[in-house]
Amino acid sequence: MSLLYQHARAFGLDLLPTQQEQFEKYYHLLVEWNERFNLTAITEYTGVQTKHFLDSLSAAPVLERAGVSGKTLLDVGAGAGFPGIPLAIAYPDLRVTLLEATGKKVQFLDEVARELPLENVTAVHERAEEFAHDAKQRAHYDFVVARALAPMRTLVEYTLPFARRGGQLIAYKAVEAERETGEAQRAIATLGGRVREIIPVKLADMDDVRHLVVIDKIAPTPAVYPRAGGLPKNKPL
Fold first, then answer.
1. pLDDT tens for each residue of 12-70
2. Any idea where the domains of the chain sit in the sequence?
3. Percent of the chain with pLDDT over 70
4. Where are the alpha helices (DSSP H) in 35-139?
5. 3-234 belongs to which CATH class?
6. How big is the CA angle at 214 (ends 210 and 220), to the nearest 5 degrees?
7. Is residue 1 scored above 80 in pLDDT?
8. 67 — phi, psi (to 5°)?
C-alpha cells in the first residue's frame, strides 16, 4: 500500500489503481521538468508524496461537503500544479482550470494534463488581476483554491472575484493562518467574502500543522477589484 494511498484515506479518499498510476506519472514528469527549470525545491519521492500531493488533497473533505460532481474549480497561481492537479486526479468529474502567469509552467501543466491524461484540466497563461475582469471568468467558479500564493490580504483580492456567490475560496496556509486571516477581515468583507472556518491539517507523520482557510462568497465583488499594477501586493486592502 503506497504512502499516498494510505494517508489519502484520512481525507476520505480511496484512490483507485489508475489514479495511483497518474500520481506516479505526475511525480516523474515533475522531476524530469525540474531539471530544465525550477518548479519545486522538493523532488525527493516521499517529500513530494506528502508535502505536495497529500497536502493538495487535504481539501477533499471541504469539497465533498459542498458536493463535487459537475462543479468547477480554479487554481490561482497554479505553479507546478498544486493543489489543482491532485484534486483533478482525485475527482474526474471536477472541471479544473489552472491559472498561471509563467509561460514555462503553463507548458508543464499542459504536458501533465496530456500525459496522465486529464480531460478535466485546462491550463491558462494569464495574470489573475487581468483574468478576473473577463466577464466569462468573473464570479464563475464553485471553488477557488490557492497555495503558497501570497499573504491573505493580497491572496483574497486575487481569488475572491472568481468565486460565484455561494461558492468558496479554500486557501492553503501554514502556521500563521489565524493571524493572517484576522488581519485580512476587512479585505475579505470588502471583496464579498465571509470566513467559514480555519481547519488544522496534519499530513502523514509530519510534525508541522498546516491550515485550510475556508471563505464563503456571500456577495458580489465590487467591479474595481482586483486592482491592476501590483496594487494588491504593494498596497493590500
1. 999 999 999 999 999 999 999 999 989 999 999 999 999 999 999 999 999 999 999 99
2. 3-234
3. 100
4. 45-47, 55-57, 60-66, 84-90, 103-115, 128-131
5. alpha beta
6. 150
7. no
8. 90, 130
Q: What gap in Å lies between CA 235 and CA 138, rounded to an integer? A: 22
Contact between residue 83 and residue 55 where contact means Cβ atoms under 8 Å apart: yes
One-letter amino acid at 57 equals: L
Residue 141 CA to its chain's centroid (Å): 13
Count CB atoms within 10 A of the CB of residue 179.
12
Give 29's contacts (C-beta < 8 A, 6+ positions apart): 108, 111, 112, 115
End-to-end CA distance of the chain: 47
Alpha-carbon gap, residue 208 to 150, rounded angstroms: 20
Q: What percent of the chain has pLDDT over 90?
A: 91
Neighbouring residues of 184: CB distance < 8 A, sequence distance ≥ 6:
151, 152, 153, 155, 156, 237
